[in-house]
């Protein structure tokens, strides 16, 4: 992840400068900063970074300007990674953002305090994965629809799928659950089979399983 080119967008100057300092100390290249959505789009078009970190709510209205800018970036630069930061769990906005499941992330700002976890999230997005804040996962779990498409899964399989939704690798899930990586692989195969996701030549099945999990709210 060294030398990964990043643009930061947040109207909180102290937070933005703090993030820039953290990323630069970690070997990333902060090639631009923005305090509003218009400036963000200008910087992104000029610098074409590999990754953008943006707040959902930005000037002038502190509504969804950051989210709308993220949509524009995804449309114009589909290969660019985007991590959206939010002060609160906003399920509807997060679901819309995460719909395509690739190089995308949603984290609460409070999560930035865990430096290692934040850097790992950036790395997962840069490598083509998705990152979902555990608080959002919990919100979706507690608000599952009555017709639950995950009803076919065992309790342990649900735990594994929830960790998959957070963007964790099989090795990371194994460490969290105190089981072997081989055991996690068996659970993942079972989850994909039970959810009726056909065999493919890439990792889209895993992404689709996560989307199924996120939509089951």
Output the number of helix runs: 10
Low-confidence stretches: none
DSSP, total strands? 6
User: Percent helix among the residues?
Assistant: 40-55%
Q: Cα-atom Rg, whole angstroms?
A: 17 Å
What does the oligomeric state look like here?
single chain
Shape: globular
Strand content: 5-15%
List keywords for this structure.
217 residues; 50% helix; alpha/beta; single chain
Please give a structural write-up:
The structure is a single chain. With 217 residues, this protein is α/β, with parallel strands linked by helices. It is 50% helix and 14% strand. The protein has a six-stranded parallel β-sheet, with helices on both faces. Helix 7 packs across helix 10 and helix 8 crosses helix 9. The chain is globular, with a radius of gyration of 17 Å.
Compact overview of the structure:
The chain is an alpha/beta fold and 217 residues long. The protein has helices at 13-25, 37-47, 65-76, 91-97, 115-126, 134-142, 155-165, 170-177, 181-194, 204-215; strands at 5-9, 29-34, 51-55, 81-86, 104-108, 130-132. It has ten helices and six strands; from the N terminus they run E-H-E-H-E-H-E-H-E-H-E-H-H-H-H-H.
């Amino acid at each position: 992840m060294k030398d990964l080119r990043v643009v930061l967008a947040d109207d909180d100057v102290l937070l933005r400068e703090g993030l820039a300092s953290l990323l630069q100390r970690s070997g990333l290249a902060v090639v631009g900063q923005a305090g509003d959505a218009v400036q963000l789009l200008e910087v992104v078009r000029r610098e074409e970074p590999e990754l953008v970190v943006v707040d959902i709510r930005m000037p002038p209205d502190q509504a969804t300007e950051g989210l709308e800018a993220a949509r524009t970036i995804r449309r114009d630069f589909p290969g660019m990674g985007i991590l959206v930061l939010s002060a609160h769990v906003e399920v509807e906005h997060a679901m819309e953002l995460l719909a395509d499941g690739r190089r995308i992330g949603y984290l609460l700002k409070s999560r930035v305090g865990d430096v290692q976890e934040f850097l790992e999230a950036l790395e997962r997005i840069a490598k083509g994965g998705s990152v979902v804040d555990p608080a959002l996962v919990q919100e979706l779990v507690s608000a599952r629809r009555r017709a639950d498409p995950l009803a076919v899964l065992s309790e342990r399989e649900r735990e594994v799928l929830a960790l998959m939704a957070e963007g964790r690798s099989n090795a990371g899930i194994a460490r969290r659950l105190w089981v072997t990586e081989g055991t996690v692989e068996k659970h993942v195969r079972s989850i994909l089979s039970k959810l009726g996701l056909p065999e493919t030549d890439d990792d889209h099945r895993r992404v689709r399983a996560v989307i199924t999990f996120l939509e089951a709210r």
